[in-house]
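Re: the request from the purification team.
They wanted to know what the chain is likely to look like in 3D before they choose a buffer screen. I agreed to run a prediction and write the result into the notebook, where they can find it.
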Amino acid sequence: MLGRSGNPTLKEGTFQGKGYSSQGAMTIEGTVNKTFITLAILLGGAFAAWSMHADGQNVFPFAIGGAIAGFILALIISFKPTTAPFLVPVYAACEGLFLGALSANYEALYNGITLQAALLTMCVFLALLFAYKTRIIKATRNFRLGVFAATAGIALVYLVSFILGFFGLSVPYLHDNSLLGIGISVVIVIVAALNLVLDFDFIEEGARHGAPKYMEWYGAFGLMVTLVWLYIEMLRLLSKLISRD
């Protein structure tokens, strides 16, 4: 039985029954290469949005457009993994525009916050990759179920918060900089980070079971979804901490 990832894009059963294809099988090295390509495209889109903001242009439409287009593309890729080689680069560009605009706005409010968030995200990624490879952290069944449940719970809270926003309401402590609000952000950051462990395990299982070559793009897509989420939560946590000074 393959592992269950807390990342909704890397769900249980994604690799099952796929076997080898005429184009070869998925490898960890290939997935790593696709991940670097995907992140490079994302950074390119982010730099473009950031530059436009620095030139005084209104990047709000790019943030909204990138978020909406990225969400639609993510749904298509998730339900139709064979589209990953074609749509993941486009998704990365859209997410880049969204993140660039979002980061520029945070930077305007809190100077230096984006670099701090990026460095923290990178350090967490490397630390968990090391912990996973050395088996300090193991993706056991209970571990998977726990992270999956926590991730689903957070997604539900965000959905409720989004709906309440239309009525001028908000979930208590979720967005404020009180000690409890900061504690909630810390928990969300931890859950987002633990999803990386499940992503590593899921990609390794896919390579072991000989998934088709296009699944390398799908694996890179799932890993990028987690990294983007972790980076955004780092921004939120740091903004809460800085605003208390």
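For the purification team: Helices lie at 28-54, 60-79, 84-109, 113-133, 141-165, 179-208, 215-243.
Please add any questions underneath this entry.
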